[in-house]
Amino acid sequence: NMELLCCEVDPMRRALPDPNLLYDDRVLHNLLTIEERYLPQCSYFKCVQKDIQPFMRRMVATWMLEVCEEQKCEEEVFPLAMNYLDRFLAVVPTRKCHLQLLGTVCMFLASKLKETIPLTAEKLCIYTDNSIKPQELLEWELVVLGKLKWNLAAVTPHDFIEHILRKLPLPKDKLLLIRKHAQTFIALCATDFNFALYPPSMIATGSVGAAICGLQLNDGDRFTDLLAKITNIDVDCLKACQEQIETVLVNSLRQVRRQQQQSNPSKTVDELDQASTPTDVRDIDL
């Protein structure tokens, strides 16, 4: 009798990491050289946007992250979509009633660039409760492309992760977890406008630092110095960035715990809040 062999296979076909790209420092140098070209031109709430407030950006960003997670998008899709959104808002005064439409278009474009099977216009419109029609989405796609001058291959923090990790003396069995936590920090940063004008290399280095710190794998200041050296960042700037990232995490955990407390009133917020430190990253399914 023939035995049937059942294998679970990842449905996505992925290229293997290319050592020619990862082990050539010219690639890292080129990324560092061009990354600032893709930053928003200004802090647009002060000088461009009259109708849109920072909390509205946070709301649409949180919704976009939920869509990307539910659709199991590649990790780079959400930060790239936020890069498009910020660059557009830095040059085009936009009405708040168009913000979700803009966010949807940005996910549509980022998904085309990074996904093997991109999100469809129809599927994205369903996530807006059909308040947007596919035709409207396609029309705005051309508007956004024009304003971004078709420069879609922006440098994001994800481009630096592997270059940073390979230069650090880390236990091999912890790399997957460090990478996962760093990716979570990058997504958190993308939802917070305070990080919108930071170079991607700074966010990547701070996120890796915060991940290592949270998993208690850091070896004092030696790790911070080494991290700063990899991406040519001032040590004090890196420490400040990492602290900011950890604060965003703590606030995010507090929010989750408050929601938990509303659904479980028997525990006080303080009880639920005690573990709200970056080290407790280990106990949270990020």
Automatic annotation (TrEMBL):
Coarse class of the protein's main subcellular location: cytoplasm
GO biological process, one term: cell division
Domain Cyclin C-terminal, chain residue ranges per copy: 155-281
SMART domains linked: CYCLIN (SM00385), Cyclin_C (SM01332)
Regions crossing the membrane: none
Highest taxon listed in the record's lineage: Eukaryota
Location(s), subcellular: Cytoplasm; Endomembrane system; Nucleus
UniProt cross-references to Gene3D superfamilies, sorted A to Z: Cyclin-like (1.10.472.10)
Function statement: Regulatory component of the cyclin D2-CDK4 (DC) complex that phosphorylates and inhibits members of the retinoblastoma (RB) protein family including RB1 and regulates the cell-cycle during G(1)/S transition. Phosphorylation of RB1 allows dissociation of the transcription factor E2F from the RB/E2F complex and the subsequent transcription of E2F target genes which are responsible for the progression through the G(1) phase. Hypophosphorylates RB1 in early G(1) phase. Cyclin D-CDK4 complexes are major integrators of various mitogenenic and antimitogenic signals.
Protein family (similarity comment): Belongs to the cyclin family. Cyclin D subfamily.
Name by which UniProt lists this protein: G1/S-specific cyclin-D2
Gene: Ccnd2
